[in-house]
Request: fold
Amino acid sequence: MATDTGVRILDQRTPQERNRPFLPGMGKTWLLPLYDIVSRVAGVRALHRRAVALAGIAAGQAVVDVGCGTGNLSLAVLTAHPDARVTGLDPDGHGLRRAARKARRNGVSLTLVQGYADRIPAENASLDHVVSALALHHVDNRVAFAQDALRALRPGGTVTIVDFGGPVQDGDARHHTHGHGQRRPPRAHLRLPHTPAVARNLDDGLVTLLVAAGFADAREVEHVDHPLGRITFVQATRP
Ligand SMILES: C[S@@+](CC[C@H](N)C(=O)[O-])C[C@H]1O[C@@H](n2cnc3c(N)ncnc32)[C@H](O)[C@@H]1O
Reply:
């Protein structure tokens, strides 16, 4: 556990969760050292900055970054709002240690919690924002994540998710129609991570997830056709 410069890592996994599988950032743990290089080259930082702007974080607010990985979204929040109280949550201890090193280098305070998206490290109704970047397609129990985000947010608090997915255009459906009138599964410009996990985000998958959990005003606020694939920004408010 590290505590210097306000950077700490807390292992909040239950004994059962120590053996719980998860999908790491690059798909394989040994590829993690490449994560930040790939992320930088792919222009992911601009997505983080946009998510931070859309989240509408105010001075001193409490923010949890779900699936924080190596901490880039958390650090983007702290760059824009140095006095925000930010916690990054991820099951991957290797990612969290990288996040901690970067936070120390940047001289910012950051709490990093080793744990899973379905148990957000916050008291009931205590958070102003839940944010998450490129992580929801990795999360196994997304329904429990959405329900726990609702629990942890105060009334009026927001969840802001940026991930692969979003609306499938008419042109996509035409493009993916092939022989004998069969339709391939819609891909919505998805190029790199065309997996069943990502397919859950297509069309209004993320919006439906948040509505079912009880969020108000869940909607795609924008999307971008990124070289990695269609990226959707989805936001909702705790009633
Ligand atoms: C593609 S990385 C995104 C990392 C970071 N948010 C970013 O934008 O660079 C996906 C992250 O989701 C994490 N993850 C996988 N399963 C998870 C779960 N059940 N709960 C929380 N995070 C999870 C992975 O460990 C990984 O760090």
Notes: The longest strand covers residues 153-164. DSSP finds eight helices and eight strands in the chain. Residues 170-190 have pLDDT under 50 and may be disordered. The helical segments are 35-41, 44-55, 72-80, 93-106, 142-152, 170-175, 196-199, 205-213.
